[in-house]
Protein: Protein DA1-like domain-containing protein
Organism: Prymnesium parvum
Amino acid sequence: MLLLLPLRTRPSRSSRLWRRCSDLTSLHPPPSLTPAQQQHALILKARAAERARFGLTVWQLLGAGLVGVGLAFQWWSESLLPRRDDTRHHLTLPAAGAVVSHEEAHALLTDVRLALERHGIGLGHARLPVLVAPDLMGRQGFVVKEHGARHTRRVRSIRLQPGLDAMRASHVLAHEFMRAWLWLQGFPEMDSHTEEGLCELVAYLYLLSSLREPREGAAMKCTEAELRHQIYTIEASMHSPSKAGFRRTIESLRGRKLHDLLSFVRQHGHLPPPLPPGTLGLGFDELV
């Protein structure tokens, strides 16, 4: 009758070195080891101490940390850089065509965002749903704002009145996009005239940009005459009581760059005083 006895494998060199140093109370290996063996024994004891304290060795912790940094950077870059995949659309709308669906409104908002990004007014990868909603309490556009965790700001959606023609809808979306931009950029609370004036100014900038720098592949198909008519409509209504904020904003803008004006409002919460008379009138070059 044969008895099968377990085989005893010979411990590795590293294991033998570890056992020879494991009963020491200090990190100093016995003098009987060669310098190379002493250094190797010290490394083994240091790694064992790291595992006992952290569960992993330091180099493994550093590797995990680098992976975490890489994932964080990927999230950051996707959050801030424009996502071109989201801006692709295949809808085309005539300027006089009615906007009745969320997809049509989203296509127009994409045009607005791409045009304004060229002038430094962009939100990168921030998602802005746009909904065609019938009940806006008499308004043509509305931004649904909300507070997130840790005092952050978010925009739940931009609402658009259904049935507006594409030209008017683009104007309204540019106006409301600026309202969302001010909110997400952390601008302080300001009076309604100042906020409305800034929003209408940027909507005016969008139309001027579409006239001077038309973009191929835009969702809205319009002629130069149609764009000029919409711009003239804004300029003609400037003296109405409802456009008081727009008038004040233009007066403050004369002689300044747009981002100088926005920087002042962000710091002080109100428009800067107009510059002395003699400055040039409002023009496209002043806006950009």
